Amino acid sequence: MSSSSLAAAEAAAHVPDATAAPDATAPASTRRGGGRFPDGPAADPAGSREEHRIRSFHARRGRITHAQAAAIERHWGAWGVELDGRPLDLAALFGSAEMPVVLEIGFGMGDATAHMAAADPGTGILAVDVHTPGQGNLLALADRAGLTNVRVANGDAIVLLRDMLAPGSLAGLRVYFPDPWPKAKHAKRRLIQPSFLALVTPLLRPGAVVHCATDWEPYAEQMLEVLSAAPGLVNAHPAEGFAPRPDFRPLTKFERQGLDKGHVVRDLLFTRV
Question: Is 76 helix (H, G, I), strand (E, B) or coil?
Answer without folding.
Answer: helix
